């Protein structure tokens, strides 16, 4: 599958239809079969799904027929493709929603990260799956402590997210969650996977969010403004993250990943790595995460420890040292203060859920 970005001010669906016909006329020479294409006129992007012997052959069809070569081509597999883009229909290979409108290929991805701190919460996961299904979402396979779903329409995704948030906040026992909605295109100008940049966005924000927090990216807000039901949907429960904030979140995430096992790293070290003054670093981290720089380091390590305790058989001491804590006793103390239980108890609970 490829992506094309168009510079022409007069870009239209009719232009793409014509180019597609030109591709069809010569595709056999290169062993390529054009299967389906998606057009987003507002964003001036289009995406072509093809079968072919290799990327070069697929791109050569475009080059020889009309000269508009792809900005990027990725390999896709049936199972993954069908989860994100299998719905809807096509007319002469042009992707359409079931309503008959042109399908842009853009999707909204919901990522829900859940941590159970007790074993008394019942079958809420079943209820979450029902909510997603009721709002026409498609569950994407992921880790057991995360649920990812894809939605064609933003309005369905946010209604689903609000219902999930209401369900989880009503659970009396100790449970934490972070939920993020992010929208984007199936193929990016860089990358090798479907919805790669969009999935990165939601994963980064789920890693930073305060407990029981919900984030919404700016691309989703743009989509909401274009959908008829958007005016009836309240987004006040969500923190809106602007486009420029994502570059910062990516850099912050990479720094935290790289220093997680380094106890000598201090919050002041962020300043140089981020290229900001002390006050700028504080403001930007606080605005994005709700935490001060020293707090985000500890929170990131504690969040990581939850996963380590759940999926590994390492001792508490080993996990503490792996995550940059000098003392297992101190790690246990702040873990209990943060989550209300000891690491040992959490490990037992999580392995029995």
Could you outline the blueprint of secondary structure elements for this entry?
Layout: E1 2-5, H1 13-26, E2 33-40, E3 45-51, H2 55-65, E4 72-73, H3 78-85, E5 89-91, E6 94-96, E7 107-116, H4 124-134, E8 138-140, E9 146-151, H5 154-169, E10 175-184, H6 196-208, E11 213-217, H7 218-226, E12 239-241, H8 243-259, H9 269-274, H10 278-289, H11 293-311, H12 316-322, H13 328-339, H14 343-352
Helix pairs in contact: 1-2, 4-5, 6-8, 11-14, 12-13
What this model shows, in words?
Helix content is 47%, strand content 18%. The protein has 353 residues and is α+β, with helices and mostly antiparallel strands. It folds into three domains: 2-96, Alpha-Beta Plaits (2-Layer Sandwich); 107-241, 2-Layer Sandwich (Alpha-Beta Plaits); 251-352, Homeodomain-like (Arc Repressor Mutant, subunit A). It has a six-stranded mixed beta sheet with strand order 8-9-7-10-11-12, with helices on both faces. A four-stranded antiparallel beta sheet has the order 2-3-1-4, covered by helices on one side. Helix 6 packs across helix 8 (243-259) and helix 12 (316-322) packs across helix 13 (328-339). It starts with a strand and ends with a helix.
């Amino acid at each position: 599958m490829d992506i094309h970005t168009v510079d022409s001010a007069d870009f239209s669906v009719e232009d793409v239809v014509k180019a597609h016909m030109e591709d069809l006329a010569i595709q056999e020479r290169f062993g390529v079969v054009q299967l389906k294409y998606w057009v987003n006129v507002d964003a001036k992007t289009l995406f072509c799904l093809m079968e072919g012997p290799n990327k070069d052959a697929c791109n050569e069809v475009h080059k020889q027929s009309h000269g508009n070569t792809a900005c990027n081509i990725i390999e896709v597999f049936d199972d993954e493709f069908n989860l994100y883009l299998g719905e809807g229909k096509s007319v002469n290979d042009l992707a359409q929603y079931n309503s008959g409108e042109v399908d842009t290929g853009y999707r909204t991805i919901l990522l829900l990260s859940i941590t159970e701190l007790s074993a008394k919460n019942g079958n809420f996961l079943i209820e979450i799956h029902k909510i997603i299904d009721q709002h026409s979402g498609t569950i994407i396979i992921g880790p057991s402590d995360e649920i990812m779903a894809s939605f064609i329409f933003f309005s369905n995704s946010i209604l689903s997210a609000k219902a999930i948030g209401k369900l989880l906040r009503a659970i009396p026992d100790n449970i934490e969650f972070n939920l993020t909605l992010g929208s984007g295109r199936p193929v990016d100008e860089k990358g090798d996977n479907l919805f790669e940049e969009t999935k990165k966005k939601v994963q980064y924000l789920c890693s930073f969010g305060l407990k029981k927090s919900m984030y919404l990216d700016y691309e989703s807000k743009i989509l909401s403004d274009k959908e008829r039901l958007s005016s009836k949907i309240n987004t006040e429960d969500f923190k809106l993250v602007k486009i420029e904030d994502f570059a910062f979140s990516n850099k912050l995430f990479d720094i935290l990943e790289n220093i997680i096992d380094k106890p000598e790293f201090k919050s002041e070290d962020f300043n140089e790595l981020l290229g900001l003054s002390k006050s700028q670093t504080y403001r930007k981290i606080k605005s994005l995460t709700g935490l001060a720089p020293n707090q985000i380091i500890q929170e990131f390590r504690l969040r990581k420890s939850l996963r380590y305790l759940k999926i590994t058989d390492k001792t508490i001491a080993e996990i503490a040292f792996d995550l940059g804590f000098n003392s297992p006793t101190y790690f246990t103390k702040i873990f209990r203060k943060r989550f209300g239980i000891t690491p040992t108890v959490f490990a037992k609970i999580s392995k029995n859920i």
